[in-house]
Amino acid sequence: MQTSLDTAAGALSLPQPYLLFLGDTTESGFAKTAYGLRDWAPEKCVGEYALPAAKVSTGLKVLTPAEAAAKGARSLLIGVANSGGIIPASWIPALAEALEAGLDIVSGMHVRLSDVPGLAELAERLGRQLIDVRDPPRNLLIGNGRKRSGKRLLTVGTDCALGKKYTALAISRAFADRGVDVDFRASGQTGIMIAGGGIPMDAVISDFEAGAAEMLSPDADPAHWDIVEGQGSLLHPAYAAVSLGLLHGSQPDVIVVCHQPGREQMLGTPGYAVPSIEEAIDLNLRLGARTNAAIRCGGVSFNTSHLGEEEAIALMASESERLGLPVADPIRGGEAFARLVDNCLA
């Protein structure tokens, strides 16, 4: 059974709270979906469930599907993002156990749950949902470029996988802490699981990319902000198409450029150097002006997780002076991040 769509928000409606499933994962990097939910939506997680061979943990309470259901869980969420997005045969008994315990299953894997042998038939018999998050709405329209009411901020990047989701979530939280009316708009599978809804932009047919972004961030009160999770990079040789459709369709008033200092090669494409921050700012502003002439850059978000605190603070301060913009690591927070938030709201 497929889940219903909230067409007003262009979003999947996910059954919460979740029991996080870690499978038989042994590498922490493959459990990033579970960690993202633990870090950003702990109130939506009742515990974790893993197979005996697993070597990773979120630190949440270990529960069986039946125990989780008794505590109010509504779905088993696959918290793994393994190579190829596969669902191995070793997981199937655990997924079946979750259905039999009364839980729906939520997945962001490339392999569709309905293609797992025997799972669709069991879900149908039990009246449970198999929810593939990487399944865009069926009623998408092409973009029309109409200026919508409300305000929007989009996180963009010099490359992939360097903090656009975490930056958008941190800015959303900071806006809310200041009393701003704000929504986080998720455009990737982990963000959708955290937010409880959204549109997986990397699964949208290219003709409908801008229209999907328009649907993701609809008309709103003039004082309302949508913080839109960015995808890819306009300068990435493989993923620029998704980034451009999201930029045109979201019509941001403000962009925040995300960057990882020290990264030299673009992810997955040897021989392509990571572009400069200035090039990323310039290109996003020039192309974004097509649907919002008033677009501006609010600042730069650095992923400094690989640096010591003193080195990171010094680097961000020098780059801020050089660029003439606030530069901050939203996870480190502090005064630098407060200045970035101030400039986005200015």
TrEMBL record:
Residues 53-136 form the D-glutamate N-acetyltransferase-like N-terminal domain. InterPro entries: DgcN-like, DgcN-like_C, DgcN-like_N, P-loop_NTPase. Pfam families: DUF1611, DUF1611_N. It comes from the Bacteria. Residues 142-335 form the D-glutamate N-acetyltransferase-like C-terminal domain. PANTHER family: DUF1611 DOMAIN-CONTAINING PROTEIN (PTHR40690:SF1), GLL3100 PROTEIN (PTHR40690). This is EBNA-1 nuclear protein.
